[in-house]
Design brief:
Blueprint (H helix, E strand, L loop, with lengths): L1 H14 L8 H86 L8 E3 L2 E5 L6 H10 L3 E2 L5 H8 L6 E6 L8 E2 L7 H4 L18 E4 L6 E4 L6 E7 L1
Parallel strand pairs: 4-8
Antiparallel strand pairs: 1-2, 2-8, 3-8, 4-5, 4-6, 6-7
């Protein structure tokens, strides 16, 4: 009887043992499970961080690729423009060669000024042997494939003034519009040429107050306005 009672007490002590007091093997298994879960969590965090890094890197790479494409497009446009420029330069070079050839041919064909004419620069000049009104000088020069002299530089002024020892008509007038002096070829009188007027000239002072034609004076080598009907020699000019 005592043995039975002792066995019952032993069984009850086993059944009433607290849950936290299980044998060692089950506690070790739970620890392993916790470690696995923790490892999986850490691995997930690492994978997420890796994905974020890859996303940022991909975004940067895409931006760089877009920039490279834009640069390539710009370079291709510049290349095409350079090709166009080279083509234009080649055409200009060929045109210059043609111009040089033509000029060389003209120089070979170039003749001296006709008898009685004087050369200055690229023009020939002739002092008439007769006198007459300004319109006679204009018409005579035209008949010689020339025109009344047009003076557009101080050097030409000096040369022309040395041609004659008498007053002579030049191709300057304000016949078309009073006060507006123009050359016979239609070009306006420039401030550079206007310095060759004599003192207080042009003054439009004459017997009838109508001095519309210009001439060069022999005594001062300056210009003066005079009635177009007066009789003077004239100076013609044409391209050599």
């Amino acid at each position: 009887m005592e043995d039975i009672y002792a066995n019952v007490e032993n069984d009850m002590s086993v059944k009433t043992r607290p849950l936290g007091m299980e044998p060692g093997p089950r506690s070790s298994e739970r620890s392993r499970h916790g470690a696995v879960v923790l490892g999986l969590v850490l691995l997930s965090v690492l994978l997420l961080a890796g994905l974020i890094c890859l996303g940022v890197h991909y975004h940067d790479a895409a931006a760089q690729l877009s920039t490279i494409k834009a640069n390539v497009t710009d370079l291709m446009e510049e290349r095409n423009q350079l090709k166009t420029n080279v083509t234009d330069l080649i055409e200009e070079r060929n045109q210059l060669k043609t111009n040089v050839t033509e000029i060389q041919m003209l120089l070979k064909q170039k003749k001296a000024c006709p008898d009685g004419w004087r050369r200055f620069g690229c023009s020939c000049y002739l002092l008439s042997s007769q006198s007459g009104p300004w319109t006679d000088g204009r018409d005579d020069c035209r008949s010689r494939d020339a025109h009344l002299v047009v003076i557009d530089s101080s050097k030409e002024q000096t040369f022309v003034s040395g041609i004659t020892k008498k007053a002579a008509w030049i191709g300057l007038s304000d016949r078309d519009q009073e006060g507006t002096w123009t050359w016979i070829d239609g070009t306006p009188l420039t401030s550079t040429s206007a310095q060759f007027w004599g003192t207080d000239q042009p003054d439009n002072i004459g017997l009838n107050g109508d001095e519309d034609c210009g001439h060069i004076r022999a005594d001062t080598a300056q210009w003066n306005d005079l009635s177009c009907d007066d009789s003077l020699q004239w100076i013609c000019e044409k391209v050599a």
